[in-house]
Structures are given as C-alpha cells and as structure tokens.
Amino acid sequence: MATPYAYFKKQIxxxxxxxxxxxxxxxxxxxxxxxxxxxxxxDEEGQVYVFRLKEHFDRLRKSCRIMKIxxxxxxxxxxxxxxxxxxxxxxxxxxxxRPLAYKSSEVLGVRLHDLEDDLLIFVAPFGPYLDIEKGAxxxxxxxxxxxxxxxxxxxxxxxxxANSALAKxxxxxxxxxxxxxxxxRGHISEGSGENIFLVQDGKIITPPPSSDILVxxxxxxxxxxxxxxLGIEVVERDIDxxxxxxxxxxxxxxxxxxVTPVVELDHRPIGDGxxxxxxxxxxKLYFDIITGKNPKYAHWCTPCYSKVKA
Length: 310
Ligand SMILES: Cc1ncc(COP(=O)(O)O)c(C=O)c1O
Description:
Layout: E1 5-8, E2 11-14, H1 25-29, E3 32-34, E4 37-42, E5 47-51, H2 53-66, H3 75-89, E6 95-103, E7 117-125, E8 136-140, H4 161-173, E9 178-182, E10 188-191, E11 195-200, E12 203-206, H5 217-228, E13 234-236, H6 241-245, E14 249-254, E15 258-265, E16 268-269, H7 277-290, E17 301-303
Bound molecules: pyridoxal-5'-phosphate.
Pyridoxal-5'-phosphate (PLP) binds near residues 218 and 253.
C-alpha cells in the first residue's frame, strides 16, 4: 500500500502530518507560488519518471522572484527531495508532485515584504485530467485572463487560480469540458490550466507570452517536438477567437491535460470534430517520451525508484 510523504518545514514526513496554521499568510492572501509536475508510471520497468524537473524548478524560481519569496535551494537538493518523496510514497501509478513556496508567517497584513518564506513539496496519485481520445468540448469563457498589469500570469501564483477556477466552473456547469479565456485585449490566451495551439495551413500557431499565458513546459515540449520531430513550423502570435472556429485542428497542452485535442468550441466542431492528424502524432510521441520510452529525450525524465535497474 502506498503512503504519501511530503517535504514540510525542512523534513520529509508523512503527508498526513504536514499541516499549516490557519493564520498562514499564503492561505489568507494567496501569496504562494507552485508547480505541478507529473511522475509517469512505466509498468514494464516498474519505474516512475518525473518529467522535466529542471524546467519546473526553474519556473518556480522565477515565480518566487516575482513574488519576493526567498528560495535558497540548489537544484540538486530539490531533485533529491522530490525523487525521495516519490520513492518513499511507493506509488505504482501516475503521480502529481506539488512544490509550493509560500509566505509562511502567521500574521495579518497584505504585503510581500517582511514575511518568512518556506517550501513544501507533496505527492499524490493523479490519473487522466481530460479525455484525450474523445477530445474536449470547450467554450470561450466570459472571464478574461488576468493581465500582467494585475496579477502576472507568467508566475504560477496560487491566488491566480481563482481566475482559473471561475472559468473552469462556469464551463463545467454549462456542460463543457474546459474554458478558453481571452486576454484583456480580446485575443486567445489559454485554458483554465492549459496552453492552446491551433493548426492552420500546415503551421502550428500558439499565443505568445504577452497574451498573459503561463509559459507552459508542455507547451515548450510540444513546440520542440513539432519542430524537431515532425518538421512543422511553429509560430507564436496573437490569435483571434474566430480563428479557432476555422482552424484545421486545435489542441491544449498542460502537465495535467497532457496533449488534449479541442474538438468543439462554442458549439462549432473544429476540423472534423475529432482528434486531427498533427495532434495524433504529437500525442504518440509525447506519451512515449514522458514514460521514459524514448532514449533521445531521456534527459527530460528523472527516475525515482532507485532499486529498479535502468
Ligand atoms: C493556467 C495554466 N496555463 C498553462 C498550464 C500548462 O503549463 P505546463 O505545461 O507547464 O503544465 C498550466 C498548468 O500548469 C496552467 O495552470
């Protein structure tokens, strides 16, 4: 039986014992930054491969700079804590790893300065998020993506997820799988937890970071694979809402959602309303890579179980 462990107050302890006080600043004011990292189960090897650990901790470090959170950890130390808690937890399935750097002082007062900071990391089992084979039915959200002039979307700040939650719940309660948000200028920004891509006339197009997106690591993975493995040009530019209606294909990317086709938007089928050929090739490549089955991309995968032979 698997028992989840966590890194909490500089120690590895059972997740059940990792508790914060009700006055914790981050809990009251949303002053924490986090990452969502997947550990992918490889059944043949009996191994969990954590995907793009370096890039996730690099982004966490940047989020900390924006939110003035002290982050005095070396990468090697972070990798070692992460793989240890996965190994100690003993899951034989896909897992989600959540590092969270937060304002830990138990005081009242909205600010970022003159507060203590801490880091916690926990692991939990995590299966599929959206139905990749069926694809996602989406709506354009009535909620706009938070702008860099309000709360910077490039930082993965807990407080920002109120914006994502408003959009996701509106979409789900209206019968859709996912919301697609526009930025304040009215261009396509992103899903509640995914970046967006469209395929048009043989090119892949995705919004730039200036469209108030979280600059996704799966986004980078897919852009790299499209260019280097499929030889498809990838363009970052502003995208209008109606360009998605007439796209040949559309798909979303994210650690939780992997690569999920968008098969319908605002009651209009995209392409022929099924997973398109470009998305299908990317999905196949991507799943082989994240489960450690493609040696060319082994540098993106960190094994956690030390007793398993490579
Ligand atoms: C708002 C938002 N956009 C995009 C993404 C995709 O980012 P990544 O591929 O790094 O998981 C996520 C998920 O982390 C997200 O929460």
